[in-house]
Design goal:
Bound molecules: zinc ion
Radius of gyration: 20 Å
CATH topology: Cytidine Deaminase, domain 2
Strand order of the largest sheet: 2-1-5-6-7
Number of strands: 7
CATH superfamily: Cytidine Deaminase, domain 2
Distance between the termini: 75 Å
CATH architecture: 3-Layer(aba) Sandwich
Number of domains: 1
Length: 241
């Protein structure tokens, strides 16, 4: 009798555990992680990741360690957007390395081929509009390669923008105007627009619902690095004073 009870308990526990595992979202990082308030907090988060960064590392040392980790990072099959997230975060890193804000974006076609890349250039080019997604879309639309992918200014179905961070209101509207789907690597609880669609005027709201902007399915380490790239301006207080 005891053996039967033990067996039944085992089946119940195993079933519940399986159900829980199955229903766990890919993104199980607490939302609070995605807001960083100080340089000390940023350095602590850097040192908690497997990048070999110490809390007292200099900016050149941080650059060297992040670059080495990202270049060697192998996208993981269990995270279907990892290949694209890696490229978007690499773009974020390039901007950070140039002395700019650490946000990047890429454009992929329906077969998963990456056709264009861009990154934030506000500091580099002294332009208030050059967020990563704006740079990506503007440079792409002005390039000869875009002709086969655009209907005047509307993007062909199947194209997807992958951003390293949740788009802000300006970029969110630009992406909706281009009628392109978007996925982003790290959430922006304090600045992102993806979860505030219902605040928009009705025609923009309807357009945004048609061309959704969603959280991607990328590995936790890439999500965390993309967040730290976003807040990397805290390292040297770069940007307007
Ligand atoms: Zn933006």
């Amino acid at each position: 009798m005891r053996k039967i009870l033990f067996f039944i308990s085992y089946i119940v526990i195993a079933t519940c555990t399986f159900a829980q595992t199955k229903s766990l979202p890919v993104d199980s990082i607490p939302k609070g992680y995605f807001v960083t308030h100080s340089r000390a907090e940023l350095m602590q988060k850097f040192s908690d990741l497997p990048l070999g960064i110490k809390v007292n590392d200099s900016i050149p040392a941080i650059i060297q360690k992040v670059e080495k980790y990202l270049i060697n990072y192998q996208p993981q099959k269990k995270y279907p957007d990892d290949v694209f997230a890696k490229e978007a975060v690499l773009q974020a890193f390039i901007s950070f390395k140039e002395g700019g804000y650490g946000i990047g974006a890429i454009l992929a076609d329906s077969k998963g081929k990456i056709i264009f890349k861009g990154h934030n250039s506000q500091i580099q080019k002294h332009r208030s509009d050059l967020h990563a997604e704006m740079t990506l879309l503007t440079d792409f639309e002005e390039s000869p390669v875009s002709k086969q992918y655009l209907n005047i200014y509307v993007y062909n179905p199947g194209l997807t923008v992958y951003s390293s961070a949740e788009p802000c209101p300006m970029c969110f509207i630009r992406l909706a105007s281009a009628r392109v789907n978007t996925k982003y690597c790290c959430p922006g609880p304090d600045d992102g627009m993806a979860n505030r669609v219902d605040c928009l005027p009705s025609s923009w709201r309807d357009l945004a619902h048609k061309y959704p902007c969603k959280k991607d399915q990328s590995s936790p380490v890439l999500q965390k690095i993309s967040h730290l790239m976003f807040f990397s301006y805290l390292l040297d207080n770069r940007g307007p004073k």
